[in-house]
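Good morning C.,

I know you're traveling, so I'll keep this short. The sequence:
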Amino acid sequence: LAPLAMYLRLPPPLRPPAVAEGPHFAAHLEALQTRLARNPLIDGSPQTREEIEQALAVLAAHADEAARRAASQVFMSTAISQSGRLDAFVVLGANLRLVLRIARIYVQRPTLRDITYLYANVAGTAFIAGELDDIDISEQMEPVIASTMGGLAGVVPGLGAVANLLTASVLSGAANAYLALRIGHIARQYSGSLVIEDRRRVRRSASAAAAGSLAQIVTGGTGRLVKAMGRATASKATGALANLFRFGRGGGDEDDGVHNP
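The tokens, ready to paste straight into the viewer:
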């Protein structure tokens, strides 16, 4: 019962009011001002609503950068692993850490109630059944993949199987990176909102923002995959030629030994 008692004694998280006016909104701005004043990522102490919004914009930039880093890591991890079960754990762990990182950006030392409140809102918004197809990400991915695949032949010419494997890897990594970007934007909107946001609007806004950031993640990650495959292929080819050369030289010496004892 001790952990439950400690949890119940924690201060409640900041929950924005429904409208941007009235005593509840004023009290929320005052509490938010106190929290921002203690945040080391903010210079000074914001006083007016405009200064509070500017401070929240600074934190939003940090949160977006955290989401892009997490999406890049998810892209590379899931593109390389090619294991559905492993990918599920990788993506889940990365997204949980991302939401916690964004919570720390806005609160620095979030309480368990803060984190629980944020996780509940992010999960309730991001994983509603039947609402994950707000934006068709294939439209965003096709031109990126096509432009990147076009340069594959110059790196590893004639390896169609490698190209197919790379395409599958990029598609898997891009889908998971898109999910990470989307969750990062949802967490940012809930962490820095002055009023209660409509879930459908938050979801669609996050989908659009994630789709806009996906091209950069896919392009950079695919370039790294192509270079890695090129280096690996060159290394294998060099090793095979070296082995063939050693085998041929050894065979010649053996023939000399047989015919000329």
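Safe travels,
E.
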